[in-house]
Automatic annotation (TrEMBL):
It comes from Streblomastix strix. This is Serine/threonine-protein phosphatase. SUPFAM superfamilies: DNA breaking-rejoining enzymes, Metallo-dependent phosphatases. Keywords: DNA recombination, Hydrolase, Manganese, Metal-binding. Coiled coil: none annotated. Residues 1-197 form the Tyr recombinase domain. Signal peptide: none annotated.
Length: 501
């Protein structure tokens, strides 16, 4: 069975095999072979346990396994095709090694696995319990076990336009099965490849990630990707997911953890080295860092480099651009990553030829505050003279705890990473002046009219708003708003009677 739909969602499983599965004993070799068959094809345990020597055929660089699925009294035969891969965890090589092992050839019956007899009655639909035990022995984390792999395939195929019949065929469900409707909206089953960066940080040979050789797709659903998807392509695939999440409020909390790394897999390709000058062709990639990285390494490195750069800047950023040159000024984003992408689509990405001023409030409310701020910080590191990040009132300890950013970072990373975000927030400049004519600030006006630029320059901005001593001018610059609501903190409210003047 073949399909026109691409697949990259089993990468985490393959990485786990490389890191955790040993080959010291015959049992290790057997388990590794079984696991790779599952990882590359989402084979169910009821199929896996019944594979015989006669079901396996080798042709040149492919392996074909014949299986039969019998459900609702409707048996259907399938041929699962595995392509030989030039990677350490090739299922074809693993199967050949196991079939030639002395322990395998000693078996008298037609079965090829220890402890799994061809006629053994296996429990449960898809035999998830047995698959769970198998993956436990190999060392796969629980979120990748059982029927999760198959369910992630279902979601991926449906998102790419496959019909229900095509989904059933690719995942070897019986004709007419409603499995794709049953599991389509299960958060835990959604696109296992979303956590790709987290796992690859633990794998020493990271360079193969860039070459695309690890995108060895499921043989049932297309050919390998030639290259890691860029940000726009990845986001396009995930756009429907986000829409569905917004429509299903009850699912938002469950989906947050699973969405955490899908954008960062592309952030890593933007690169963060402070010497980098071309964001589209980075000289150094985070994934090429020679030492093994913890899951938090790329994040803390981005924040560390950004903090070093930002703390050297004055309170007021001076921007001088030729007359007629476009400057993109962006207001509150509040975690809405796709709004930022739409701005880039309409006005172009930040560059030396396309300056951007971001007025703060990158985080809170939306699900992607971390991704927004990290992406913009990467652009700042790449184009320090033409990308300017200002502080908003939500870049504070008070607001991030109250409106969700603290919880977001702790869910995705740790409390230590959250503290690093706060340190960077405290270094953000508080206003900008373009061509000595236009003042740009997140909030609004002061409670007196004779505040000078010199006074703003003297503000100790490396604090929480309201803790900068003196007249708390920074808090007024971040909190003052055009409204008639009750006063909050030290902000100054103003309306048309002020702005018209």
């Amino acid at each position: 069975t073949k399909s026109k739909y691409s697949s990259v969602w089993n990468l985490n499983l393959l990485t786990k095999f490389i890191m955790r599965s040993g080959l010291g004993t015959a049992r290790d070799l057997m388990r590794r072979t079984m696991g790779l068959i599952v990882a590359f094809s989402a084979t169910r345990m009821v199929e896996l346990a019944r594979i015989t020597r006669n079901d396996i055929t080798f042709r040149d660089k492919i392996m074909i396994i014949k299986t039969v699925v019998k459900k609702y009294k409707k048996p259907k035969q399938f041929e699962i095709t595995f392509n030989k891969r030039q990677i350490p965890c090739c299922p074809v090589d693993a199967m050949k090694s196991w079939l030639s092992a002395e322990e395998c050839t000693k078996k008298l019956d037609e079965g090829i696995w220890w402890d799994y007899e061809r006629k053994k009655k296996l429990g449960g639909t898809g035999c998830s319990r047995e698959l769970r035990l198998l993956l436990d022995e190999i060392g796969i984390d629980k979120e990748y076990a059982g029927s999760t792999v198959r369910h992630s395939m279902i979601t991926k195929l449906r998102d790419e336009g496959a019909t229900q019949e095509e989904v059933n065929e690719a995942t070897r469900h019986a004709p007419g099965s409603n499995a794709c409707d049953t599991f389509y909206y299960k958060p835990i089953a959604r696109d296992i490849g979303a956590l790709i960066l987290k796992d690859f940080e633990d794998y020493p040979n990271k360079r193969c990630y860039n070459k695309g050789s690890w995108f060895s797709s499921n043989p049932l659903v297309g050919t390998p990707q030639a290259q890691v998807p860029r940000l726009a392509r990845l986001v396009a695939v995930r756009r429907d997911h986000l829409k569905r999440n917004n429509q299903k409020c009850a699912m938002k909390k469950k989906c947050r953890h699973e969405e955490q790394h899908f954008i960062l897999s592309d952030l890593a390709h933007i690169s963060l080295v402070s010497k980098q000058t071309n964001i589209e062709s980075p000289q150094t990639d985070l994934l090429d860092v020679p030492n093994p990285m913890t899951p938090e390494y790329p994040i803390t490195e981005i924040l560390s480099q950004g903090r070093i750069l930002l703390e050297k800047l004055p309170n007021i950023i001076g921007e001088n651009d030729p007359q007629g040159k476009q400057i993109t000024i962006v207001g509150d984003l509040n975690g809405q990553f796709f709004d930022l992408l739409e701005i880039f689509k309409r006005n172009g990405k930040p560059s030396n030829e396309n300056p951007h001023q971001i007025l703060g409030n990158y985080v809170n409310f939306g699900l992607f505050g971390t991704e927004i701020f990290l992406l913009l910080l990467c652009y700042k590191l790449a184009y320090p003279q033409n990308v300017h990040l200002l502080r908003g009132n939500h870049e504070s300890d008070f607001c991030t705890k109250l409106y969700g950013f603290k919880k977001e970072v702790e869910d995705k990373y740790s409390t230590a990473v959250y503290q690093n975000f706060l340190l960077v927030f405290n270094t953000l400049p508080i206003c900008a002046i373009v061509n000595s004519r236009v003042s740009i600030v997140h909030g609004g006006l002061f409670n007196r009219t004779n505040v000078t630029l010199e006074e703003i320059c003297q503000i100790n901005r490396f604090n929480e708003p309201g803790e900068e001593e003196g007249e708390v001018l920074m808090e007024q610059m971040l909190w003052s708003v055009p409204t008639n609501l009750v006063v909050q903190n030290q902000k100054f409210e103003f309306g048309p009677n002020i702005t018209d003047v």
